[in-house]
Amino acid sequence: MKIETKTIHAGVSPDPVSGAIMTPIYQTSTYVQEAPGKHKGYEYARTQNPTRDALQNNLAALENARFGVAFSSGLAAVDAIIKLLSPGDEVIASNDLYGGTYRIFRKIFEKYGIRFHFTEMAETEDIRKLINKNTRLIWIETPTNPMLNIIDIKAVCGLARERGIRTVVDNTFASPYLQNPMDLGADMVMHSATKYLGGHSDVVLGAVLCSDEALAEALYFIQNSSGAVPGPQDCFLVLRGIKTLHVRMDRHCENGRAIAAFLKNHEKVEKVYWPGFSDHPKHQVAAAQMRDFGGMISFTLKGNRFEDAHKVLSNTKLFALAESLGGVESLIGHPASMTHAAIPKEEREKSGVVDSLIRLSVGIEHKDDLIADLEMALGKL
Fold first, then answer.
1. In terms of domains, do 251 and 223 share one?
2. pLDDT of 24 higher than 90
3. Fewer CB within 10 A of the terminal residue: the chain, N end or C end?
4. Sorting pLDDT into bands at 50, 70 and 90, what band is 41?
5. Which residues pair with 272 in a beta bridge?
6. What CATH number should be reported for the domain holding residue 341?
7. What number of other Cβ atoms are within 10 A of residue 111's Cβ?
8. What's the CA gap between 201 and 195, in Å, rounded?
């Protein structure tokens, strides 16, 4: 089944009671049992919910995985993955990743004895030199947030498998429509479904997908025991959003391509970060593991002055100044003071998150209007 068809049909079916074509919102906290221990597969809504089950099955199908585990947010999904580890275990992660992921690694889990190493992952040798007997997990984010670096998923997963180390890929920026890490060897794929999967900036939700049954059971145990589960209304909204994922992503990519080209040729712009450019350091890797290059773009301004970035950020009309990404509307943000403020300035700047860096989540509006909006804001400099 092609992914365009999976978005609409995989894991869902008409309601057997009414024939409703849309998955019902099972807004209940508990389920009546015929006798103690005799029920219809549902006991308590933290543990199971039919709306959540439909979403989990749909997400698993999109990522070519066997199991899906949904959480109340992307960070709750991150939290669950790290809870698979024990004190003394070590994790290797990119030095360019979402600030919230960095924060939960360093501020929450380090104090429980889990050690994190952050490195560039442009070459597998950068990872190999950090592997030791305590390494249990390699955390891959590609394209990275916000520098749009590309990591070779197949190469990293191959290295990890040789050493008996699990890998997880944060696939939020690409979505399952553009990239399927499980097909490239990943053990787990995680999503902030708040972003492209939901697609309408109206829900917060996360998910982990995998194919190993024992791993899935461990994640389900954490999901139930820790209780960071999404409500049925949220699951319904993400299911609804997924049904248009393919058509939205096509427009995100089309608009992203046009805006990246516009910015690259603008006299006030120093550098544009977008993996679709042939001169991107890992363009060929991106072309091999992605179906298209997405609608996320970052760029810096000449002079690298925060004041200039502030002026651009404050003068767009269609690009809304807000955190998050992946919605139908275009967003503009300042990673250094917004999404990545939790990372110390010195570490931010090592990975390229300087004061003039601006991140765009290109929506599905008409590209000419979006370009005109950026032209107007840049004209204020």
1. no
2. yes
3. N
4. confident
5. 299
6. 3.90.1150.10
7. 8
8. 7
Q: Indicate the number of domains in the chain.
A: 2
Confidence (pLDDT) at 53: 97
d(CA 284, CA 69): 32
How confident is the model at residue 86, as a pLDDT?
A: 98
Residue indicated by tokens 């049909």 = 9
Domain containing 93 — which CATH number?
A: 3.40.640.10
Regarding whether 317 and 225 lie in a shared domain, the answer is no
pLDDT attached to residue 215: 98
Residue 132 lies in a domain: yes
Q: How far apart are CA 254 and CA 295, in angstroms?
A: 8
> How many other C-beta atoms are found inside a 10 Å radius of the C-beta of residue 42?
17
SS (H, E, C) the chain: CCHHHHHHHCCCCCCCCCCCCCCCCCCCCECCCCECCECCCCCECCCCCHHHHHHHHHHHHHCCCCEEEEECCHHHHHHHHHCCCCCCCEEEEECCCCHHHHHHHHHHHHHHCCEEEEECCCCHHHHHCCCCCCEEEEEEECCCCCCCCCCCHHHHHHHHHHCCCEEEEECCCCHHHHCCHHHHCCCEEEEECCCCCCCCCCCCCEEEEECCHHHHHHHHHHHHHHCCCCCHHHHHHHHHHHCCHHHHHHHHHHHHHHHHHHHHCCCCEEEEECCCCCCCCCHHHHHHHCCCCCCEEEEEECCCCHHHHHHHHCCCCCCEECCCCCCCCCEEECCCCCCCCCCCHHHHHHCCCCCCCEEEECCCCCHHHHHHHHHHHHCCC
Residue 54 sits in the same domain as residue 157: yes
pTM: 0.96
Residue 165 is part of which domain span?
10-242
User: Does residue 48 share a domain with residue 174?
Assistant: yes
**What tokens appear for 350 in the block?**
């090592």
Q: Record the tokens describing residue 192, joined without a space.
A: 């902030």
Question: Does some domain include residue 2?
Answer: no
